[in-house]
Write a structure and sequence with these properties.
nine-stranded antiparallel sheet, about 20% helix, globular
Amino acid sequence: MAEPCHLTNAPITEAVVDLRVHPYENFEPPRTSPIADYLDVQPITHHEIALDTRQIVDHGRIGSKFTSADERRIVQIRKDGLTFSRLEPYTDWSDVWRSAAEWIQFYLEHRKRVEIRRIALRYINRLALPIKDYEVDVKQFLTAPPEPPPELKYPVASFLSQVKIAGHDNRLQATIHQVLLPVEQSASPGHRIVVLDIDAFVEEVFQITASTEGLEGLLRRFQALRAFKNELFFAFITDQTVAMYK
C-alpha cells in the first residue's frame, strides 16, 4: 500500500458524480441548458426490443445530455437520476463538486423533492507504467495484480479483474476494476497501460430538497465516498507508482 498524498499529475481520465433516484414518469427533461457554457444539448432516448416478437418499444426521450464548450464536462439529466462527468485534465475535487452541485441544484429545483436510492463517486485512472516483463515488473507498481498459476510459464498478455469491497460498516461499498491493456495499446515502447477504475457508492434511500441543508448533507455523503475511494486507490498501488505522478 502506498502512502496517501496529493498527486500533482493525477492519472485521472474521468471523475463521475452520480445520483440514482426514484423514477418520475412525468418528468420533462430540459431541452435547453440552464447553465451557461454548456452549449451542446442532445436527447437521451430509450428503446427496448422484445426478443420473442422482435418488436421495438420506444420509450421516447428520457433525459438530456449537456456538454460544455471545452468538452471537458458532460451532464446527463434523466428521469431516474443525474450523472456529472469531468474528463481529463483533472482539476481537483472542489472544482468537480462545484460544477456538479450547480446541476444537482437545478435538478432538485426541477423535481421539487427527490427520493435518492444510490449515490456514487467513480474515478477512472489510466496508469502508464514501465512494465516490460510482467512477472518481474508488475508488483513494483501494483499491490494486488491478478496472477496465473505458478505452474504456467506463459507470459501474461493482458488482464481484467473485478473486486467488490464493503466498508467497515457495510454502508460504503466499492467495485474496483484493474485492466492491463494489450501491448498494442501501450502508451510508449516499454510501457503498459493499467486502468484502475474505482466506483465507490452507497445504496441508501433518503429524501432531499433544493435547500442549502440538502446540498450540504449530500456533500458530506460524497466526501465520505471520496475518502473511501482515496483509501482504496492508494491501497492498490505502490510508492513507486505514486512517485511517477507526484
